[in-house]
Amino acid sequence: MDRTFDELVAEAASEPVEGWDFSWLDGRATEERPSWGYARLLGERMARASATLDIQTGGGEVLAGVLTKPPLAVATEGWPPNVAKATALLHPLGVVVVADDDDDPPLPFADAAFDLVTSRHPVRAHWTEISRVLAPGGTYLSQEVGPSSVFELSEFFLGPQPQEAHLSRHPDHAVAAATAAGLDVVDVRLERLRMEFRDVGAVVYFLRKVIWIVPGFTVGAHRDRLRELHDLIQTNGPFVAHSSRFLIEARKP
């Protein structure tokens, strides 16, 4: 028997959302993956590096999956629950985790300290700081959230968003900022990827975890709209949205 709206919402509202592991959504939501394979690229770059920095590492899940790590590997994270989770996961693998509020540069490292800097889905890339801590000849590799990502879900709850919101986080802005910081951009790619949410609980969990999709989201404040979404999924099938991702790689001369 299908579970009720109240059962689905209550379950998802009580689930912990620390870290960056989305396995709770297995069978309940899907998202296509970018063709370039960020985890594979990260592993290739780290295998050749001697000192690396992973910025905004989250719970450390992506970095933990890299099989060959350099002699010196450091990660930063600013959200206290994720700092604890990343520390527990990465310290046994030889990675030092530094608690750092990335919204408040500078990075707590010396100039030219790393030959590889990485970041997956940073909230914001501080290009001047990235350039500063990179050694000459060093590389920055990042997969970022692109423009209009999951806007179908955002606009379901918030209504139509202004044009400037759709254009924010465009890779052209990242290329311009990287160049202004003195880096040479050697690769940039953008893809839109299909997502499906198969029940309203999956939406609740996703919005609690990815807090910028619907800023200020709570079950209480959005319950009426959640019920409408539940009815829509029951009638028409999965709610379809599209994530947006771009890859950028830059080198310091």
Automatic annotation (TrEMBL):
One of its GO terms (molecular function) is S-adenosylmethionine-dependent methyltransferase activity. Keywords: Methyltransferase, Transferase. It comes from the Bacteria. One of its GO terms (biological process) is methylation. Pfam families: Methyltransf_11 (PF08241). Gene3D superfamilies: Vaccinia Virus protein VP39. The keyword Methyltransferase applies. The keyword Transferase applies. Residues 53-140 form the Methyltransferase type domain. PANTHER family: METHYLTRANSFERASE, METHYLTRANSFERASE TYPE 11 DOMAIN-CONTAINING PROTEIN. This is Methyltransferase type 11. It comes from Beutenbergia cavernae (strain ATCC BAA-8 / DSM 12333 / CCUG 43141 / JCM 11478 / NBRC 16432 / NCIMB 13614 / HKI 0122).
